[in-house]
Design brief:
It contains 20 helices and 14 strands. It is mostly helical. Among the domains are: 95-209, Glutamyl-tRNA Synthetase, domain 3 (Alpha-Beta Complex), CATH 3.90.800; 361-409, Helicase, Ruva Protein, domain 3, CATH 1.10.8; 418-505, Arc Repressor Mutant, subunit A (Orthogonal Bundle), CATH 1.10.10. It has a three-stranded parallel β-sheet with strand order 1-2-3. It has a three-stranded antiparallel β-sheet with strand order 4-5-8. A two-stranded antiparallel ribbon has the order 6-7. Helix 9 (302-310) packs across helix 11 (346-359) and helix 18 (467-475) crosses helix 20. The longest helix has 16 residues, at 20-35.
Length: 507
C-alpha cells in the first residue's frame, strides 16, 4: 500500500443489466475501499454508444442500492470533485483527446485511415497466410493506410479533408512487457502478442483502452479492479501509461477470477440454467425482449446474496462462511482472492439465504410475510403470524415458501395425506383417536406442556399413538414443524374441530 489515498471505481458499461459477475466486481471494490477508509466511485463507461441500452444505467444504480454497496461518489451518488462521471459527458471536456494528442506527439500512437473494407481484406489476407490470430499490429500495419506508411503531406491532406480515421497505439514489435497484479503476481507478455489498440474513434469518442486510463489518472484512482477477461489487454494499458509518462501514477491492478458454471465448465452465463437468477433485480432487455428474474424478486435477502458473492473467489483465511458486511470489510484483502475461477453453487446459494432467514427475528419475518396472506385475502393476527414464522422458518429457504409449507395454519384441511392414511389408518383407529380427541377437549390450559402430557398419558391407556397420524388429522399433510408446537398455536377450539371433521370423514 502506498501513501496515495485509496480510491476505487466500479465502471460498468450501460449495455445491459448488471449481472452477478458485475456485482461481485463492485463488491470487491467496495470492500477494499471501505476497509482502508477510501472512496468507492461509480463511473459509467458509455464510450460505445452503439451498444447503449435504455434503462441500463438506472438499473445499475438501483442494483447497487439494493445490494447495500452504494458508492459515495459518482453517477447517482454524491457530488464529487471529478464530475461528470459519464464518459460521454467527459468527452466534451476534451479530456481524452488531450491524452491521444500527447501519444501522437511522442510518436507512440498514429493515425489510421483504413476503411472497414480494407480491414476485412487485411484479415482475410492474414487468414490465408495461416496467421493464427489476425490482428492490426507491428507487422500488419506496414501494409495498411496509416501515418506510419503515408507521407507527412498525405497525412496532412487526409486530416484537413476530414477523412475518417482512428488513433491507434503503436505497440513495439518484440519487447517484454512486465507488470504486477495484486492477485496474480508478476505477469510477463511479449509485445508480439499485443495488437495496436484503437484509442480514439473517428467520431472523437475514446475506446475503453484510452478512456479508462485517462479517467483513472484524472480521478486519482489507486486500484483498478476488473474481471480477468481484461487481462489480455493489460499489457497494452501498461504501454499507454508508460508512453504518457504516468507509470508512477498508475493504479495498482487486480484481475478477478471468473465465476464458473456449477459444473466448472466455462464462464457463468446470464442465461445459465441453474434455476437461480443471474441478476440482482428483475431485468427486462428491451433490445432482445428477454426478461430475467432477479435475486430480490426471488426472495433472497441482499445480505445473503452479498455474503455468497464475497466467497466466490475469496476467503477470509479460515472456515467462516456467514459474515455480515462489516466482517467482510474488516477481513477483505486482494491477496486472499484466488487466481483460479470459482464455481457457482446453486444449492449453497440457497443455503446462504436460509442462514440469513433464520437470523431474522420472528417479528421481522412476520412483517415480510403478512403481505403474502393479504394477497390471498387471509386475515390473521400479527402475534399468530409471528409465532407461525417461528415454527415454519426452520423448514424454509425463503419467506415466499412459508405459505406453501404451512398453509394449513390458515386453512383447515379438507383432504388427508393418502399415503399416510393407507399405511396407518385401520379398523381400530377411529375409536382410538376419538378417545384422544375427547382427552384434548378436556384440557383446561391449552399449551405445549399440557398437550404433551395429555398425549403421553393417553398412550398408557390406548397404547402407542402415531404422531404422524395426529399431524395428518389436524393439518392434512405428513410433515411440518414440531407437532405439539403446531397444535398449541392453532388452539384448542381449532384442533378439536379439525380432529372431529377428520374422524367424520375417515372410515
Amino acid at each position: 500500500m502506498s501513501d496515495k489515498k485509496v480510491r476505487l471505481r466500479f465502471a460498468p458499461s450501460p449495455t445491459g443489466g448488471l449481472h452477478m459477475g458485475g456485482v461481485r466486481t463492485a463488491l470487491f471494490n467496495y470492500l477494499f475501499a471501505k476497509k482502508h477508509g477510501g472512496d468507492f466511485i461509480l463511473r459509467i463507461e458509455d464510450t460505445d454508444q452503439t451498444r447503449y441500452v435504455k434503462g441500463a444505467e438506472e438499473y445499475i444504480i438501483a442494483a447497487l442500492k439494493w445490494c447495500g454497496i452504494e458508492p459515495n461518489e459518482g453517477v447517482g451518488f454524491g457530488d464529487g470533485a471529478h464530475k461528470p462521471y459519464r464518459q460521454s459527458e467527459r468527452k466534451a471536456l476534451g479530456i481524452y483527446k488531450k491524452y491521444a494528442d500527447k501519444l501522437i506527439a511522442s510518436g507512440n500512437a498514429y493515425y489510421a485511415f483504413d476503411t472497414s473494407e480494407e480491414l476485412d481484406e487485411m484479415r482475410k489476407r492474414l487468414e490465408a497466410a495461416k496467421v493464427v490470430a489476425p490482428q492490426y499490429n507491428s507487422v500488419s500495419r506496414q501494409n495498411m493506410r496509416n501515418s506510419l506508411t503515408l507521407s507527412e503531406d498525405e497525412v496532412k491532406k487526409l486530416l484537413e479533408s476530414e477523412t475518417p480515421y482512428v488513433i491507434r497505439l503503436k505497440v513495439p514489435r518484440n519487447e517484454e512487457i512486465r507488470f504486477h497484479d495484486i492477485i496474480r503476481g508478476w505477469v510477463v507478455v511479449n509485445s508480439a502478442q499485443v495488437d495496436d489498440k484503437v484509442l480514439l474513434k473517428s467520431d472523437g469518442m475514446p475506446t475503453y483502452h484510452l478512456a479508462h486510463i485517462a479517467d483513472d489518472i484524472e480521478m486519482q484512482i489507486s486500484h483498478a479492479v476488473r474481471g480477468e477477461e481484461w487481462l489480455p489487454s493489460a499489457p497494452a494499458h501498461i504501454l499507454i501509461y508508460r508512453y504518457l509518462g504516468l507509470e508512477k501514477e498508475m493504479p495498482q491492478m487486480a484481475h478477478l477470477p471468473l465465476i464458473l458454471k456449477p459444473d466448472g465448465q466455462g464462464k457463468l452465463s446470464k442465461r445459465d440454467k441453474s434455476g437461480l437468477p443471474m441478476f440482482p433485480l428483475n431485468w427486462h432487455d428491451e433490445s432482445s425482449g428477454e426478461t430475467y428474474i432477479g435475486y430480490h424478486e426471488s426472495g433472497f435477502f441482499a445480505d445473503a446474496f452479498i455474503n455468497m458473492l464475497a466467497l466466490l473467489g475469496w476467503n477470509p483465511g479460515d472456515n467462516r462462511e456467514i459474515m455480515e458486511k462489516a466482517e467482510l470489510i474488516e477481513n477483505f484483502s486482494f491477496e486472499r482472492v484466488n487466481k483460479s475461477g470459482a464455481k457457482f453453487d446453486p444449492d449453497k446459494t440457497k443455503w446462504f439465504n436460509q442462514q440469513y432467514l433464520r437470523k431474522r427475528s420472528d417479528a421481522e419475518l412476520a412483517e415480510a410475510f403478512m403481505p403474502v396472506l393479504e394477497s390471498k385475502n387471509i386475515k390473521a393476527d400479527k402475534n399468530f403470524v409471528t409465532e407461525f414464522c417461528r415454527l415454519i422458518k426452520e423448514k424454509a429457504h425463503f419467506i415466499n415458501e412459508f405459505y406453501d409449507l404451512g398453509f394449513y395454519f390458515f386453512i383447515a384441511p379438507t383432504s388427508y395425506d393418502e399415503k399416510v392414511i393407507a399405511k396407518k389408518w385401520n379398523e381400530n383407529s377411529k375409536a382410538v383417536y376419538t378417545k384422544l380427541h375427547q382427552k384434548f377437549e378436556a384440557i383446561s390450559q391449552w399449551n405445549v406442556e399440557s398437550i404433551t402430557k395429555t398425549f403421553h398419558d393417553a398412550e398408557t391407556e390406548l397404547g402407542k399413538l402415531d404422531m404422524q397420524l395426529v399431524r395428518v388429522l389436524t393439518s392434512g399433510v405428513a410433515g411440518g414443524p414440531q407437532l405439539f408446537d403446531m397444535l398449541s398455536l392453532l388452539g384448542k377450539e381449532e384442533i378439536t374441530k379439525r380432529i372431529s371433521t377428520a374422524l367424520a370423514q375417515l372410515k
